[in-house]
Amino acid sequence: MASLRIKEHPILTVDQHVPEIQFEFNGKIYTAREGDTIASALLLNGIRTLRVHEETASPRGIYCNIGHCFECRVTVNETAEKRACLTPLEDGMVIHSGQRLPTPFKKGEE
Amino acid sequence: MNQLVIVGAGPAGLSAAIAAAKNGVNVTVIDEFMKPGGRLLGQLHEESNGIWWNGVDEATNLFNEAIEFHIQFQFETSVHHVKKHSNHWDIQTDKGMFKSQALLVATGAAEHSIPLPGWTLPGVMSIGAAQVMANVHHVKPGHHGIIIGINVLSIAIARELKLAGVQLESIVLPSCNLLNKEASQPGVVFQKLAKLAHLAPSPLFKMGGFLTNKLSFLEKLVVRSFPKNGLKAWGIPIQIRRAVIEILGEEKVEGVKVADITPSGVIMKGTEKIIDVDFVCIAGGLYPLTELIGVTACPFKFIPSLGGHVPVHNEQMQTPVEKLYVAGNITGIESAKVAKAQGKVAGLSVAHDLHYLQDHNAIDDAVQHVKKMRDHALIQFHPDINKGRNELNGASITN
User: Fold this and answer.
1) Do B244 and B306 fall within a single domain?
2) What is the CATH code of the structural domain delimited by A20-97?
3) pLDDT per residue over B367-387, tens digit each?
4) pTM as predicted
5) ipTM of model over 0.90
6) From the record, what ranges are coiled-coil (chain A) (predicted)?
């Protein structure tokens, strides 16, 4: 399928010569470019699930894209709970999606 | 210590910073995002004179001016808490503590969500999220999507997405549930839509705008006979008689289930169908983002025409709390031009209160400019904004 990157725009200036950078997400290498946020870089690469709900494991992605909803939090270079939409992508960044957490005290679970 | 800390580098914060700094106040502006402009950055619309309002350029111009006046910027910095002391404010951030004599909170607005079955699926996002993705990061929110929620913001952004080359199925209503009463009523939505007639190039909308000002039974007639497939604005069908019942998909959005609805928003059995889309935008409208004011002693007033709970303040953008100021959408949902004009007032007020302002007519002139911008706004987010503003001014006097 065609790329989600906007290459031309009737009004906005779209710079075609932005340097590419590479990053790792859940152990795989992807390419985006300077100026991307983690959120835009992942979307560009077709990745919509940024974490799973800590209790139910249902998938979650970008919701507000301005830092308010906290749905897009990921682990960046071992720092947890970073908002993907507010974090500029850097070359060599290692990103992990949020995982399901154990619920040992929940009623009815082992 | 800073003389003025401004939280928010949007149109209000930037113009406040410039106005204060021009008068000799030393200013630091803090923002969570990595670049200046706030929600200006996503904006892109055609003015009535045919000239494009390009938020990216507006933001760049304001920022360049701010830099000239040696304003300090702290990007990628989140403010967690503010505390008033006798002579200063403590501003706690994730990058450490800032101190200032005066504090201006210009945090703007956030979007209401419209919870629907399936709305947590990846690929469902706020309309503003899609706007920022396309216009700021130059990444399409998806290949083919649908917008839930018909209002001034969703119609404006739909056009922007179209310009960016995104395919849009239509703009529809959310199905009626406990959480979205008004936004799911075709009659209510149409009434609001009619006031936007000047924005959408469609003769029936224009007729609607004319009719609704006259007689409500005609309005009902228009809603009843509104084509199920909608009216097109810039090639995008606006369907006030169709609603999304559920967003479908396993790991991400794969489609939506829609149905026709009666003029009062009741689903018409047997009209359900599934439309394939890879993203969904939810447009629930904007509300003032006031949390930081909530931790101060500043009182609030609930004014629906301004978007909900707003901090009490006067026309000089002073709150009842000494050396605490507000400007922009935190004071009520209006256009970026109004926010910018309010920012100037706030900046001048700070300069005055810190004994820097020489020209005492400057504040009055700036207050008049806010009113002018309000009256000339292309988009009125609410028809009773002036009434709401007057109510708020009354509250600031009694406080």
Assistant:
1) no
2) 3.10.20.440
3) 999 999 999 886 677 778 888
4) 0.92
5) yes
6) none
